[in-house]
Amino acid sequence: MHHTSPDLSHFDHLLFNTSGGKDSSAALAEAVETAEAAGVRDRLTVVHADLGESEWPGTVQLAAAHAAHYELPFTTAARRHPNGAVETILERVAARGRWPDAKRRWCTSDHKRGPIRKEMTRIVTNLRESGKVLRRPVRLLNIMGLRAEESAARARRAPFAFDATASNGRREVYNWHPIHSWSTARVWRRIEQADLEVHPAYADMSRLSCRFCVLARRKDLIAAAHLNPEYAARHAEVESDIGHRFRLDLSMEEIITATERGDDRPQGVLFPCIQP
Ligand code: SF4
Residue 236 CA to chain centroid, in angstroms? Predict the structure, then answer.
């Protein structure tokens, strides 16, 4: 059944990356099942890249609840200010004077991938200090819920592959995407079967990314501005301060104008009285 699954027992540690979203949820259910079948469920831990205010409220708590559902250790990783507070993407945009875009996705590399690699370093140090792995690099499996359907770039990724940039003299990192070939319908079925809670923002959003993701669909951005008017206004302020558009084809100001016109008004949250 799991013909694309790697042999999980080969790895010293299995690190599951969750965003708290639907793909992460379905992938977590699969990863737990596969680890159980391989007899290495005790090597599995869950990490969430905490993006602070950039995320929908409740996302960190939901990610933690998913880990607790399977009784797995949970931790967060984040880019932080010297005082310990999570540094948000909007703060970085204000400081840099530029928004990220598809070619310069520093939001993902600096706020997700970088902090997750620090978590890998911590795991490797613990395994070495406990004497569990000596005289060879630690074998670490990094597990994510990416799917081919999401984008051409993701479709090109192998479901299981060595990650040369995450690896070093102390660790060999492999990436595994257990639901790479899955359809959206299959993802929702798996979540239902696993009885995992979903974020309420899915009533109005097709994806649970950052609340205002530069790569999101126009419809999702307008729905997000309806639901987060104050945060949208702060994005528009930064946009006007730095003189760089949120996106070339769509400024934050245009998103807010479309919201005020009533375009793509979300139904689920603003008018709860008409919901069944
Ligand atoms: S969800 Fe969008 S804005 Fe947030 S880190 Fe990912 S690409 Fe960047």
Answer: 24
Q: What are the contacts of 235-244 at 24+ separation with CB within 8 A?
A: 235/90, 238/90, 238/93, 238/94, 239/99, 241/94, 242/93, 242/94, 242/97, 242/98, 243/97, 244/97, 244/98, 244/99
**Mean pLDDT taken over the chain:** 93
The reported pTM is 0.92
Residue having the nearest C-alpha atom to atom 8 of ligand 1: 107
- The string of pLDDT tens digits covering residues 114-147 is 999 999 999 999 999 998 888 899 999 999 999 9
Q: Which residues line ligand 1 (CB under 6 A)?
A: 89, 100, 105, 107-108, 111, 209-210, 213-215
Instruction: Pick from 210, 214, 250, 252 the residue to mutate for probing ligand 1's pocket: most ligand atoms within 8 Å of its CB.
Output: 210
Q: What local confidence, expressed as pLDDT, does residue 268 receive?
A: 53
pLDDT of residue 157: 94
Mean pLDDT of the 243-258 span? 96
Which positions ≥6 away from 82 have C-beta within 8 Å?
Answer: none
User: Residue 39 is encoded by which pair of tokens?
Assistant: 């007899």
Return the residue whose CA atom lies nearest to atom 3 of ligand 1: 213
Going from the Cα of 100 to the center of ligand 1, the distance in angstroms, rounded, reads 8
